[in-house]
Amino acid sequence: MVTSGNKPQYDSIVIGAGVTGIYQTHLLAEAGMKVLGIEAGEDVGGTWYWNRYPGCRLDTESYAYGYFALKGIIPDWEWSENFAGQPEMLRYANRAADAMDVRKYYKFNTKVTVAIFDEDDNLWRVTLDSGDTFTCRFLISATGPLSASRMPDIKGIETFKGESFHSSRWPTDADGNPEGTDFSGKRVAVIGTGATGVQIIPIAAQTADELFVFQRTPNWCTPLGNTPLSKEEMDDLRQRYPTILEYVKGTDTSFPYHRDPRKGTDVPEAEREAFFEELYDQPGYGIWLSGFRDLLLNKESNKFLADFVARKIRERVNDPEVAEKLIPKDHPFGAKRVPMETNYYETYNKPNVHLVDITQAPIEEITPDGIRTADGFYELDVIIYATGFDAVTGSLDRIDIRGKGGARLKDVWAEGPVTYLGLQARGFPNFYTLVGPHNGSTFCNVGVCGGLQAEWVTRMIDYMQERGLTVAEPTQAAEDQWTEEVYRDFARTLLAEANAWWVKTTTKPDGSVVRRTLVHVGGGPEYRKRCEQVAYCDYEGFELA
Ligand code: NA7
């Protein structure tokens, strides 16, 4: 299968058929390039394909996430809810794939196992789990920041006799549809209380005989406030698509929120509390993203909001001891992604729901019949691991990616990523990481930011091809400067005080611990302005040859 000489079989190979990957594939094909897509799932959808757990839904307003609708690729698309659920999101991805006719470029049910840069021919040799190898000039990963599922390392985990699975691998029936969510007659455990656990728990509690929530760290959760969208509302939104798109492109995270220009510390208490009430009652991320501008910069301002949300938790949970356990003590409000909840706190008032605090009494082992903690045994029929992902770099770590001189990307990034614009790493020419580490699309509304990034990368590849350039690689200076900037910006914020999924923690052989951000938090508009400058200056910071 491997070509000889220096002509690759494909201009580009795109890894992943999530919303960013299918758009990237479409753009490259539309620009006249020969492109191959590789996807582990049996069809498109990415995150919306894999995460089929009950309660899975957008925490972004549907209309603001739906770039394919906003861009006119599927202009007649109808959202049925303000925050669409997973089945609707999967239909959305499928409809966009139909409209762009991209499936024909993809090999589904296929994983990339190895990718090696050939320095003689300036091309990538990409090996698949089928054993086939294909060559391409440009290798583009669109593997998703939250796609490498992380199972906990618990003694005896494999011995459990009942059903058990990670939340992103929900069991399916013979037709491939997610199995029902009826847990009647069952004793169910959910391990993990991040955004996923917080979505699953209220639904599992509706039917399970007993539901045990194994919580290591509580999160600051606020109401999602989802409601249906009427036909009139949808028609109105559609009229405003151009304005909406411009607006979300202009906000820091591409969510439809700008920060309040006031500092929390400058506002009198009564006014502040009234403002928090207003934000708490609003649907979506307003409370996180349109609050006072110093929320993530000033501890005192942050504490005002944290105390307010803690009071709400105490009001909503009947048992004061349970309420205290549900209030975070270890991190500022919003320093981790805020799970958006629907009746989450009230769920703990149900007699069949039990909060198990595994910080006090850790899980010791899983036996064939259940979970043993330091102070008890829980007999179970089902264990749901809502334990998150090896975020951002995890999906790349699972591919053996080798650049110049045989260097392995995983080793180069062992203590944290080093990149230029979060798009390329020195030593790995022509390899682009969409929505990857340190780029401005990851700490962002990915539906929109991933699309904007794919457009930028297409332009760069097009620029190179027009000029007969076959290799692009960041300079050492550009990479050093960008990486330093990313780390410095992050360290200035209160985000640095939490172990969110976007922080990579590594223990070195000498026992010292290194914590590095995986995301760029300088804001989408600043990031894209920078990328435009780079493009304008003939891709300054890249060595092109
Ligand atoms: P998260 O946010 O990474 O949450 C994972 C949860 O699982 C979190 O509560 C963890 O506790 C817990 N966890 C992880 N490992 C263990 C072990 N070994 N034992 C007990 N508990 C554990 O992942 P999600 O899937 O919920 O959400 C990811 C993103 O998806 C979310 O931000 C949205 O953007 C969409 P910890 O906090 O580490 O103590």
Describe the SSE topology.
Blueprint (H helix, E strand, L loop, with lengths): L9 E6 L3 H12 L4 E4 L8 H4 L11 H4 L1 H4 L15 H15 L5 E2 L4 E7 L4 E6 L4 E9 L21 E4 L20 E5 L3 H13 L2 E6 L6 E2 L7 H9 L1 H10 L18 H13 L4 H4 L9 H18 L3 H7 L13 E2 L2 H4 L5 E5 L5 E5 L2 E4 L2 E4 L2 E4 L8 H4 L2 E3 L6 H4 L18 E3 L12 H21 L5 E3 L1 H16 L11 E5 L5 E5 L6 H13 L5 E3 L1
Parallel strand pairs: 1-2, 1-6, 2-3, 4-17, 6-18, 7-16, 8-9, 8-16, 9-12, 10-11
Antiparallel strand pairs: 4-5, 5-6, 13-14, 14-15, 19-22, 20-21
Bound molecules: ligand NA7.
Short description:
The chain is α/β, with parallel strands linked by helices and 545 residues long. It has 18 helices and 22 strands.
